[in-house]
Amino acid sequence: MDFFLSLVIAGACVGSVYALVAVGLNLTFWTTKTLNFGQGAVMMLCAISTALLTAQGLSNGVAIIAGVAIVALVGVIVERIAVRPALKTAGSMGWVIATLGFGILLQGITSKFFGSQAIPFPEVLFTVQDVIDIGGQNISLQYVSIFVVSILIIVVLEGLTRYTVLGTAIRGTAQDMELAIVQGLPVNLIVSGSFVLSSIMAGIAGILTAQISGTVDPAFGFELVLMGFVAAVLGGMGSSAGALIGGIIVGIIGKLVGGYISTAAEHGIAFALLIMMLALRPEGFFGRAEVTKA
């Protein structure tokens, strides 16, 4: 029972990171009906930037802010050069290849200038020795901090989109972009802002995960964005609550499978869940089926 409980707690903490990635994907889905499949590279870039800056003597706080600022700029670049041109053609799925290609390019550039070997990541919030007793289990405070920070960010973002003028503008753009333009909303700015916020959330997810692994390399983040995508589909594309529930479900089931069967099957079971959900309920737990009228 103790082993089971420890797996559930660890799965919920890891799953909250998947949820954070999923909400970041939802941000761009709301405004442009696209997903930035280069998010994995964005996570990697933020984590590596933070690690390299702390190695140069900067404090953790300054290094994190700088890393987040870098990926925020990357978010603007992705929207301008990889997504916006592809959306000019109605029905085009070119943004899929464009965002994937951008992510691969970013990985290649990082490998060229900083090498392909893993570099140590600083202990940002807590050390590996810091633990807390939960239900009789000693759980690392690093895991707990991941869960708390991820949930807090998701709750704040949900409040922002529901109860602020900016949130109203985002939802208006998501519902009908042409009408939003007619109403005078700065649609291009809103769309760019969604990619910036999405990249920031990916960067934070990268930092939170890197402090657990203790290292980061150019390949870091690819599996995370895939798991975040599974969480988003499972919960329902466009739903923050769904992303949270989906992420935690994926995290817990993955840890249970890894603990009782094999760690090699952790990610495989996530994609089995994805296939099952697409077959039984394509809109996800909290999503709504879209109705198209001719």
Topology, element by element:
Layout: H1 2-32, H2 39-55, H3 60-87, H4 94-114, E1 119-120, E2 131-134, E3 137-140, H5 141-163, H6 165-175, H7 177-182, H8 187-213, E4 215-216, H9 222-235, H10 240-260, H11 266-280
Helix pairs in contact: 1-5, 1-6, 1-8, 1-9, 1-10, 2-3, 2-4, 2-8, 3-4, 3-8, 5-6, 5-8, 9-10, 9-11, 10-11
Task: Give me some keywords for this one.
294 residues; ABC transporter involved in vitamin B12 uptake, BtuC; two-stranded antiparallel ribbon; single chain; mainly alpha
Brief account:
This protein is mainly α. The protein is 73% helix and 4% strand.
**DSSP strand content:** under 5%
Specify the biggest β-sheet.
2 strands, antiparallel
What's the average pLDDT? 85
CATH topology (fold) name: ABC transporter involved in vitamin B12 uptake, BtuC
Amount of helix: over 70%
Discrete helix count: 11
Strand arrangement, major sheet = 1-4
What is the SS-derived class? mainly alpha
Low-confidence stretches: none
Radius of gyration: 19 Å
Taken in chain order, the helices and strands follow as HHHHEEEHHHHEHHH
How many domains, as an integer? 1
Reading off the top of the CATH hierarchy, the class is best stated as: Mainly Alpha
Span from first to last CA? 55 Å
Counting DSSP E segments of at least 2 residues, the number of strands comes to 4
What would the principal axes of the Cα set say about the shape?
A: globular
Q: Mind telling me which CATH architecture this is?
A: Orthogonal Bundle
Structural summary, described in words:
There is one protein chain. With 294 residues, the chain is mainly alpha-helical. It has a single domain (2-280), classed as ABC transporter involved in vitamin B12 uptake, BtuC, CATH 1.10.3470. The protein is 73% helix and 4% strand. The chain has eleven helices and four strands; from the N terminus they run ααααβββααααβααα. It has helices at 2-32, 39-55, 60-87, 94-114, 141-163, 165-175, 177-182, 187-213, 222-235, 240-260, 266-280, and strands at residues 119-120, 131-134, 137-140, 215-216. The strands form two sheets. Strands 1-4 form a two-stranded antiparallel ribbon. A two-stranded antiparallel ribbon has the order 2-3. A hairpin with a 2-residue loop joins strand 2 (131-134) and strand 3 (137-140). Helix 1 packs antiparallel against helix 10, helix 2 packs parallel to helix 4 and helix 9 packs across helix 10 (240-260). The radius of gyration is 19 Å and the shape is globular. The N and C termini lie far apart (55 Å). 45% of the residues are buried. The mean pLDDT is 85.
